[in-house]
Amino acid sequence: MSSIRSTLRTLGAATAVLLLASACSGAGGGGGGADSVNVLMVNNPQMQDLQKLTADNFTKETGIKVNFTVLPENDVRDKISQDFSSQAGQYDVATISNYETPMYAKNGWLAAMDDFVAKDSAFDQADILTPIKQSLTAADGKVYAQPFYGESSFLMYRKDLFEAKGVTLPEKPTWQQVAEAAQKVATPDVRGICLRGQPGWGQVMAPLTTVVNTFGGTWFTKDWQAQLNAPEFKEATKFYVDLVRNHGEAGAPQAGFAECLNNMTQGKVAMWYDATVAAGLLEADDSPIKGKLGFAQAPVVKTETSGWLYTWAFGIQKASKKQEQAWKFISWASGKGYEELVGKNLGWAKVPDGKRSSTYQRAEYKQSSGSFAAAAEAAIKGAKPNDPGVQPRPAPGIQFVGIPEFTDLGTQVSQQISSAIAGAVSVDDALNSSQGLAEKVAAKYKGQ
């Protein structure tokens, strides 16, 4: 769900929109001797930077050669699943997200990292942002992956348009305040807000699920009772659908991150609720709205916070015969020294941030992202991957449910929601249909 956002992150806002449809793919070699590790990695720009910097830095320092295989997100997920589930051991290290990590750990596919961390004081595990660390910790309390970068979600808005209308927003707004602002700041040429409406478990369902959480809803109760047609889930979904239908962007049923980025940079909307990484694009040097933005925390209703949480991280295959070498690579790639290396050689705008407290204290980083850094840090620190709502959950996750079936379930439900945004079905009908899908999934887990 995050490959588009992470790819856009290192591009300027104007050029990023034009490049969205382009897919870049690459592959590295396999094999390797005793002083080498095989790494299977997603092909976004931050990882490609890592690939370019490895030989002259990590390998030169340690003597460990790294053989990269770099693939697009869908392809890499499939390949990782195949190799790790079979414990074939072809790859020692792979990029996995906080969605897969707890499940892979439960299945016995990953090596726990606690012993490595204990012996590696320079890595400074305490510096990892707590929500990120929690999201990569399994039910047994052990850490199974280390983050390369992370993100949450927050509200971005045009300060100049708000000032022109005499409208203000607090640093921590409610969704009702956002809806009122969307109505007040709208003009014939500018819609009040942009919200994802495009089908996909990582598209419309990501922001909508954060709204459901803070309205008091949940996909499943702790004992696996499906809740998609419960009053709180319906109230949240109706609010979201009404907001985007009444005050949202044109073409909302097919609008995702890319389309909202386009609408925001072109001045067609006054607000946008989405990933924190979007801020860097909106404040890029080539952005026509650079310097005109304000940032607020993810809107809430019944919860203290509501921002989502996502991270690309490195995990070690349990079957790997080179776990020591694998850890050395991960410690380097996820460490403070690597951030400094990127900052000095490629620029601080390219630093894989969102994972360490120390990043946000660096003067160089603050200078390059001063307008939104504090808000992004607060959003990530406020995320609660194990307690995102008002009731206990059966699986971790904020904008997703941490079970293998969610990719299919979330996608099917998202199609219903997009139809409701389009006006083809009512929210009640959409959620009543979705409830049956959720009940089938829940049936697999009841009694376990």
Automatic annotation (TrEMBL):
InterPro entries the record matches: Bact_solute-bd_prot1 (IPR050490), SBP (IPR006059)
Assigned keywords, A-Z: Signal
Domain of life per record: Bacteria
Pfam families per record: SBP_bac_1 (PF01547)
Record carries keyword Lipid metabolism: no
SUPFAM superfamilies in the record: Periplasmic binding protein-like II (SSF53850)
N-terminal signal peptide: 1-27
Protein name per UniProt: ABC transporter substrate-binding protein
